[in-house]
Structure formats: C-alpha cells, structure tokens
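TASK: fixed-backbone design
INPUT:
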C-alpha cells in the first residue's frame, strides 16, 4: 500500500554544482551512491519526512543523461513509498497503467522499485519504492 511521498528526483549535470542551492535551503547530503545498472550517481538529501534525490549521469547513454539532453536540469520523478510493491505493481497493471519494467527491480539503497510512464499519470514519471527486507540481498 502506498503510504507516503518518499522522495522527489531532480536531474542534475553535477551533484557538486547543484549543492549550493540546497545548502542555502539548509539541506545537506545524507548519502551518495552509484547505481551502475541505471548509469547514475545519486545523492540523497533529507527534507523532513521525505528526501530530495539528486541524479547525476555517469554515462552518456543513461536515462538521466537522455533526460538532461532533452529537457535540461529539473524535476525528473516523484517517488511514492509502498510496503507491498508487488501488490501495487499488479494493481497498476490491472488498472491499465503503463509500467516501465516487467517486474520491480533493485534501485538506490537496495530498494525495490517500479516506474509508471508519464503518459499514464498526466505527465509525471512516478516511481514506487519499497525498502528491501532486513537481510534481503
């Protein structure tokens, strides 16, 4: 069940170059991680109960590099937290929404993630995210 706004993903050319804006807002990097399968470096900034995720491409063919080439820096996606990504994935499919992956996959922080195409959501790329169970690889 979807229970919260987990984070807002912001595409940036450089995390370091983007940080002065967020520092001016009183935010600092909580953690940085590279997600090789997505070709992205991720910096998480805690903002109350939610987070801001800065997404920096690590290769020219990554989805974030493509996004930046087409649109420039800015909001990339809205992530909703769930406690049952499998059930939510099935519910979205049954409702006729276009999901981007055949099944949830691993994302930043080892979370299970699924994306919903912007054409199904009024122009917003949605991500669903569920933390991995303790001890789950």
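OUTPUT:
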């Amino acid at each position: 069940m979807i229970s919260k706004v987990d984070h807002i993903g912001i595409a940036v050319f450089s995390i370091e170059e983007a940080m002065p804006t967020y520092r001016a807002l009183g935010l600092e990097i909580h953690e940085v991680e590279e997600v090789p399968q997505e070709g992205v470096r991720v910096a998480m900034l805690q903002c109350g109960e939610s987070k801001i995720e800065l997404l920096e491409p690590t290769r020219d063919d990554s989805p974030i590099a493509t996004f930046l080439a087409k649109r420039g820096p800015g909001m990339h996606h809205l992530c909703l937290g769930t406690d049952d990504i499998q059930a939510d994935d099935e519910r979205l499919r049954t409702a006729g929404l276009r999901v981007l992956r055949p099944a949830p996959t691993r994302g930043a922080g080892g979370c299970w993630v699924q994306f919903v195409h912007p054409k199904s959501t009024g122009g917003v790329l949605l991500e669903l995210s569920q933390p991995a169970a303790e001890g789950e690889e």
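COMMENT: The beta strands are 2-11, 29-35, 40-47, 50-57, 74-82, 105-106, 112-116, 126-130.
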